[in-house]
């Protein structure tokens, strides 16, 4: 594998203009010198990654793993329809993924499984020398966060947290504005995951997002495992969609770091009310006690003096929003209302419509390849996050969103749980870089490669 990776690295083309769109594939790659990728988990999310991988000319999907035979059948059909070679198949039991990791013809893996498997599978992948990409969140406990960092440092193998919102078009435009000092010295951020997930946490056991109030063994897709976290944990269990982009704007782990956090939770009535409304007061699930508060609010302070407010709001009726705000000494952006104010440029005390500003500071990647990305999923974000993973894996170099980021962002879940349980007591963030955040340079985001 090392020799294959060296070949890939030595024959890579620096300019993205030499790629064949929409797959971003190197024209110089022969069929024998592609990156061999295995997928662990081919449910709805894993299948989305599979579809995007199959568009690329520089990737072979050589192996797939899932304990659900129906999902294996669906994945094999996608590969067959794309004229790909029949992959090796694993899924005889929950640990069969380890046999996939033992394959010589797997260079990198994408992990899209239920949350409790993310860290153990990523650690096993790095131990096996496979470049790992893992869906969010990467870890559930502080011990798991350290497992990611320690395994990466011990083995020298890389992993990337596949946080696609970092690649959202407006987010990258605002990052460009932050880097160009449009807002002045940054002071405060807000973000979160505010998304009515009642139709995801419950269904009828037949369709992934159908009506119904079943979960656990009687549920299907995410309701089979995700809802259990709301039963047993009073925590912000899904922080990275909002926090990831903000952490990059604030140079966290690269000149800055999270210092401490306090969290509070409202009462939790939303999921119970939904069960009663859709299934009736006599439904067995109406007796379930949900531990998670409906609205969880956390405040982080950073080494450089910024504050970050994170909101988790998934159990009540509401429109979707990640609630972004980026505020500096000279102005700010707020995603809700699509508005920007810059002192000296905007009319005093009046918001500007954000879009003209976002167009002016549009990210080079989106300007060059946006039209090809839009059909990749999540408005095009999936196209760019997968490209960053593949390009980093081909060269066997550190990805833009690395093990230290995965650990720091995911640590919000256990720290919020501890803080809520102790009446909002501040919780110190571990320094997962062991002091190297002071010396690490920020990733060069403002480029048109990846």
Automatic annotation (TrEMBL):
GO terms for molecular function: hydrolase activity, acting on glycosyl bonds; nucleotide binding. Pfam families: GFO_IDH_MocA, Glyco_hydro_109_C. Residues 172-353 form the Glycosyl hydrolase 109 C-terminal domain. It comes from the Bacteria. Residues 35-159 form the Gfo/Idh/MocA-like oxidoreductase N-terminal domain. Belongs to the Gfo/Idh/MocA family. Glycosyl hydrolase 109 subfamily. PANTHER family: BCDNA.GH03377, GLYCOSYL HYDROLASE FAMILY 109 PROTEIN. This is Oxidoreductase family, NAD-binding Rossmann fold. It comes from Maribacter aquivivus.
